[in-house]
Structure formats: C-alpha cells, structure tokens
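Protocol step 4 of 6: structure prediction from sequence.
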Amino acid sequence: MPRQVDHAGRRRLIAEAVCRLADERGLEGVTLRDVATRAQVSMGAVQRCFRTKEEMLVFALEQIGERIGERVRARLVESPAQSAGTALGHAATEVSLLRDEHRAEARVWLAFVAQAAVSEPLARTLTANYADLQEAFTRLIAEAVEGTDRAVSLDPRREARTLLALADGLTAHVLIGHLSAPEAHEVLDAHLAGLWERPVRAPHHPNGSPGTR
C-alpha cells in the first residue's frame, strides 16, 4: 500500500520553513530549493503543494495571520468577566507582537508587509487580515462606550483604525530598536487610557449650532 500523504500537514510544514528562512534572511532569501531543504521534503513535494513561490508565500502569510487571530480570540474569551476596554487592551497587545517570544514572528510579519507593497496577492491577504482585526477592535470599542457620554462623540470604526495603525507601528519601532518593549507598552497604554478619558465634544451640526440633548 502506498504511504498516505497528509497534504494539509505538509503545506503547514512548508509554511513553517518559509517563516524560519524569512526570519533569518528576509523574503528575498526564500527559494523553493531552500524551503524544501529546511522542511526536509523534496522539491517535487513543494511544487505539488504550491504551484508558484507566490502561492507558497501567501499561504505562509495566512498561517501567521491565523496564529495572531487565534491569540487575540483566546485573550478575548479567557476571562468572560473582563470589560470590553480591558479585552481591547489585551487584543491590541497581541497584535503589536511586543513580547519577546513573538519577536521572530514580528520580523517575519514585517518582511511580508514590505513584500506586499509589490505583490498584489500578499497585499490582498494582508488587507483581509487587517479588516478582520479592525472589525474586532470596532466591536470592542463600541461595547466599551455603550450607554455612556462617549458613545455620542466617539466613532468606534475610526478609533479602531487608529489603534490598529498604532499597534502595527509599534511592532516596527520595537523591532528596529527605536523603542523598547516596555516603552511601546507605555505608548499603547496611554493611547487606550486617552480613548476613554478624552473630553466629550458635542456632535457637529451642519448649521454650526450645538446639538441639544
């Protein structure tokens, strides 16, 4: 009987090899031959799993996005009693990849972000990842301010976009050494605190007169 091949498992194995090589050399150093060697499979096995190098890179990026998403979801459900604001802070911390154990993942993530600037398939994958995270942030912000004065003046979707961009930027600043991880945490915490403490402004009306409540 011919040996059964776990196709899905082999694709994940190859994706892990891509990420290890990207961490060491950047994506420009990732070749099909080196990926096969690192994954300890044949070149033919790699080519049976992925028709092109770009398809292989897209799958590897999807795997990273799924891992980050799983950690965000885990933080959201680990304590059902936590407030939406606390859950938002936990989720933003996960997305920022500030912990030491996520430093290699941060390097690989930024390598993919850079490559996505010249690769439409990678850009589409990243856009989908960011859209999912933005929706999660938007939902948590809306829940956190529901029933308060902040709900009148705060736009959850705009604030979610801002927070996601900040989290992504902190990843790069820590990675290149501009900020230490504790300093980045301080920036993130200050932004989140300001989100809830900012003065409430009356809603804007086209005629320029303040709204009445």
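Step 5 (inspection) to follow. Confidence is low (pLDDT under 50) at residues 209-213.
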